[in-house]
Amino acid sequence: MVSCLLGALPPLLLLSLQTVNGATVPRAEPKDLTTLEVHFAPNPLLTNDTSCLNDDQCPEGTTRTVSYFVSRDKAVIDGDVIFGTETEILEASTGNSTNAKRAYSIWPLATSRKWPFGVIRYQYEDATTASGRGPKFEEAIKRWTNMLPFLQFILEPDNSVNQPDILMVRAVEDSVSYSYIGRVTFPEVQLGRPDLPETDYWYTHTIGHTLGLMHEHQRPDRDSYLTLDCDKVAATATSPPPVCIDPCVGTGCYFSIYDFTTDPNYYAGTYDIKSIMHFNPGDFAKDLADPPLKPIDPIVFDSNRVYPTVTDANRVCDIYWEVCRGVCGDGILALANGEVCDDGNNVDGDGCSADCHTADGGPRCGDGVVQTTLGEQCEPPNVGNCDANCHFVIEPPHCGNNVLEPALGEQCEPPGTPTCDANCQTINTPATCPAHCNPNVPNNLCDESTSCIPLFGASGDPGLPFGMSYMCACRAGFRADGVDPSDGSKQVRFSATQYTSYVFVEPGMTCNTECSPDTNPFPCSEVPILDEC
């Protein structure tokens, strides 16, 4: 049976089969590699050092040794990460005398390569890829969107031509799949064979890269959790023995450490050995039964991972903080995330659906939680002013109680102010809103406690990315420091759903003042809503 399968494989496919505990399983096999040093500035902007951006000499620590192979005209490093074309990686080499790409930084800020508002438009290269890879790929997409419903993957018609900002899905006859880290101008994933047992893991892992996540096993603190024996890393017939520390050699570069502690979005939280972004123990191993990475007791390695962990989802949520309202599956009911229930997993049929939007017959009225998305107004039922259906028998006064209650039709609190009438409705008088911002370097003047984000639906500026308008947004739950919160010329809120958690401020203003502790999902009722300025 094994010889038959091997005979059916294309001659260039580097895939081997090993027998472990009586079962025949495939494993990733290293390809012929080229090792070189490249300019690899992780984030010069954090230190205001823009020399790498100006084609000048890069500061110390902004180069790195990598090894790559070419898959369908793309240079792949770290085993499954697309760097760019082979021409681009050679131009990025420190040995390139023209220095044509010295300014290029493959990993700038994690947030600088995100998909605007978490919307990913994708296309299959052709109908064969759509039918062969599509079902498994879309299952993997659902594993991410169940946990993070703000993510939107929108399928475009098949097209063999790469188009700007549309994720090209291509097929490769490998066991592993490949992707860029985050969004690039011409994004791409290359999906391995869908018939192999590890496909579910690799497809989900690849989407994690596409969203902006990096390898867990290359974290700076890995060696506190696992031991690495570089002698057990498989080498190719034409490459020298692997070296796993920088300057690494060959397949050893797949296990070298990245120190991105200056940008916590890459590696937020503690080390997660169950992360979908962690290599399996046998990946690129000489012997599956004796892998190079071994967990330190009592840590246990789970090699049957196909779902993102809550840690994975929280990291994506941190990167896309403007639109993320919570993580389904973390056991925390987040009404702002559209959750009806959250039982701590993403499995259907156990009382709460995989996407937390259906209770599957589980508790609703009477569970002690006022779920306004289900029409509830009060809990528990049949107590005081709350009827058997969790509705008020007599609706109590609400306008004027200093609690903004959108479910009851309120737009503002308290009433009787220049921006809020007696019925708690916003008075839309002409006003001067805070100034806009420009996200392009070096014109981004937003303070580090804010983020220059695009405003969908606003009048755009063709001179800015995507022709959008941008404003400085405080992180959720905070407003500007040292100014009157009702001063709409300094800070405002907008009523559009995707912005209700945020306060927008003048460029340069800091946002470290906590908003009022409103009991609804959208705080900061003291800051006026001014949709028209």
Automatic annotation (TrEMBL):
GO terms for biological process: proteolysis. Residues 1-22 form the signal peptide. Residues 102-325 form the Peptidase M12A domain. GO terms for molecular function: metalloendopeptidase activity; zinc ion binding. Binds 1 zinc ion per subunit. Zn(2+) binds at H205, H209, H215. This is Zincin.
